[in-house]
Every structure is written in structure tokens, then in C-alpha cells.
Target: Mucin-3B-like
Amino acid sequence: MVTGALFLFFLVPCVEAELCYNGGIFDGIKCICDENLYYGPKCEFPLDEIPVIQLSVTVTVDAQVRVTNKEYNKSLEDLNSNYYREIQTQFKKQMKDVYGAVPGYKDVEILRMKNGSIIVEHKVISQVLTENNLELIQRIIKIIIEAVEHSLKDLHTEGKCIDPSGPELCFVPLPNSALIPSFSLNDTCKNVSDTKYADYYYPYIRNGTVRCITRCSSGTPDSMNCFNGVCRLSEIGPHCICNNLDVFWYLDSYCRLPIQKTVLGLSLALAVFFVLSIILVICLIKAKRKNSRNRRSDGANCDKIGQRNPIFQE
Ligand SMILES: *[C@@H]1O[C@H](CO)[C@@H](O)[C@H](O)[C@H]1NC(C)=O
Ligand SMILES: *[C@@H]1O[C@H](CO)[C@@H](O)[C@H](O)[C@H]1NC(C)=O
Ligand SMILES: *[C@@H]1O[C@H](CO)[C@@H](O)[C@H](O)[C@H]1NC(C)=O
Ligand SMILES: *[C@@H]1O[C@H](CO)[C@@H](O)[C@H](O)[C@H]1NC(C)=O
Ligand SMILES: *[C@@H]1O[C@H](CO)[C@@H](O)[C@H](O)[C@H]1NC(C)=O
Model:
């Protein structure tokens, strides 16, 4: 019974060790990994670079409109005031229609409300799926700006505003207000990677394409240099695995300055021997002085060591 339990206890880890990690599938001989994310005999290593064919780009355009049927007051400086929230909710609701034709439109984010009557500065947020090609992304951004511009031009709701005293907002466009675009790839790489490692992949633009890399990818400005080792990503982040750890010690986590363990052991032994010798010599000298001062000394401990050790006898 006990042996059976023991047997299981030792067997279970062995069987588990046979399996593949990270969703790899064992085909009887080897692990078949999700080749876009992992490699290694057990699929234990996350790739240094995830291939990106398609990506999702978040494009934002800063714009502003004028609300004509509401009064500006100090409440609008407080994001938690009822007045602010009321206008925000209504604004978001109506902008869904206003920007309905903008490709990938997701939401608006209010940046600021200003006096006049109320000028609402906001970000128009779009998310589009595109091929991994920077030129194409630039073209998409241009299309989105044009669409925002068009939507704002069509914003002649002032005349159409049926009940200016009602909850609905009446808008007019602000002439000559600049539309400022920007795009973010920050989420792109988080989305393509496994959530376990999402924090360690980041976008790197090279040769007109976006690459999702980690600090273990070589040849980039943030690459980690593991001098006498290899870089590996784990759940704690990228780090160096140093070569021949059974033979060498390294002075830092980048595997610099290998020191042979045998050499280190020998030097340590020598150092200990050296320190002991000095202590012994000091003891001997002290004992000698005591002896010469008081011939009938009952003998310090050091004295005995000195007498037993032939090297230190005269
Ligand atoms: C992430 O991927 C999911 C589907 O896989 C998609 O619906 C979502 O929009 C993506 N988000 C980003 C920020 O890429
Ligand atoms: C808003 O502007 C108007 C006209 O310039 C002014 O009379 C009013 O006091 C301003 N309101 C606030 C809260 O600053
Ligand atoms: C601002 O106007 C709103 C709506 O008219 C009102 O509820 C709020 O109390 C006003 N806030 C201030 C500080 O006057
Ligand atoms: C993207 O990430 C970088 C670095 O983490 C950060 O400085 C930047 O503000 C982020 N951009 C957006 C739009 O979140
Ligand atoms: C850049 O991309 C082109 C084609 O897309 C390819 O032929 C070339 O080798 C790439 N250059 C580098 C440095 O990756």
C-alpha cells in the first residue's frame, strides 16, 4: 500500500515531465507547438519574435465641436459632477451617429470642455484591422482623418435641433480647427501574444513593418545582451541563462565575468588559510610577550597551539 503510494508519488512527476507545455500536443514522438508562439522540445520557450501578418491599429483623431444649447459653468471642470456626466453621456450617444461613417469607429473620449458656449475637445477613436505594412497604415490614417473631417462638415444640426431646451445637444463645427491624428500599436503585440507573456512583447517598426519582439530579440536598441549565455523569456520576464553553470560562477545576471568554480574554491581555501595564519601569528606574538613579562604564566590558549604546531616553534 505504502510502496504503491510512493510509486505513484514518484511516477506522476515523471509522466508530467513527458507532456508538452503551453498547449503543445504530444504526437507520440515529439511535441507539436503553436509555432507562432512557442518552440523547444516541450514547447517550453516563448518565441523572441511573434510573426505578425495582420494587426489591429488604434487611430485617434483630436477634434472639437461647439455645443450651442448648453451653458458653460464651473461644474464642467469637475469630471465627477452631474452636469459633466450628463453632457458626456449625451455627447457619446450622439457622436455615434455623427462619426458613424468613420472606418472602425469605436468611441469618443472627451479631453476638455471649454467656455464658448461649450467647446468640446475630444478624441475620435477607431480601431482597424490591417495588413502589417506601415505604408498601408499611413493610408488608413489619412482615410480616417478625411472621414472625421467629412462628418464634422455635415454637422449642421443647429437648424435641425428640434428642441434646444431638451436633453439633446445641438452642434456646430468649429471652423479652422485642426485635426490631429495619432496611432498606437501598444495593444497590437499584447493581443497577439499569450496573456502570460503579454507584458514582455512590444512593437518595433523595422523596414516598413511592425514586429512584436521581446528584449531577447537580437539587433534592436533594447536587446538584452547575455555575454556568456542565452536570453530566454519566462513568466518573470526576459533574463539570461548563463553557460556551464556547473563549472562557472558569474559576477552579474548578464553572464559577464565567468569565474571557474574550482579556481574560486581554491582561492577561498587559500584566503581562509591566510587569515587563520595571521590570527595564529598574532596569538603567538601576544603569548610570547605575556611569557616574557610573567615567566610563570599558566599559559594562554594560543600558547598551547603554538607549542603543538611545529611550524611555529623556534
Ligand atoms: C484582440 O483580438 C481580438 C480577437 O482575437 C479582437 O477582437 C480585438 O479587437 C483585438 N484587440 C486589439 C487591441 O488588437
Ligand atoms: C463664459 O464666457 C462668457 C462670455 O465670454 C462669460 O460671460 C462667462 O462668465 C464665462 N463663464 C465662465 C464660467 O467662465
Ligand atoms: C451648471 O449648470 C448645470 C445645469 O444647468 C447645473 O445643474 C449646475 O448646478 C451648474 N453648476 C454651477 C457651478 O453653477
Ligand atoms: C505606448 O507605450 C509607450 C511605452 O510603454 C508609452 O510611452 C506610450 O504612452 C503608449 N502609448 C499609448 C497611446 O498608450
Ligand atoms: C525589407 O523588406 C524587403 C521586402 O519587403 C526585403 O526584401 C528586405 O530584405 C528587407 N530588409 C531587411 C533589412 O529586413
Summary: Residues 18-47 form one domain. The first helix runs from residue 2 to 18. Helices lie at 2-18, 82-98, 134-153, 157-160, 186-192, 261-293, 301-308. DSSP finds seven helices and 16 strands in the chain.
